[in-house]
Amino acid sequence: MTHKAPYSGMKILIVDDDAAIRALISKIASGWSYEADECSSAEAALVRLEKLKYNIVLTDIRMGKMDGIAFAEKLRQSMPSTAVVVMTGAPSSKTAKQTQEMGAIYYLQKPLDLDTLGDTLRIAAVWNIGMLVDRGAQRFLSLRKGHERDRENRLKTIKATMKRLIVAPDWMAALRNLVYDNDVTANKLYRELNEKFSTDSINPF
Question: Which domains does the chain have, with CATH numbers?
Answer without folding.
Answer: 11-126 (3.40.50.2300), 130-196 (no CATH)
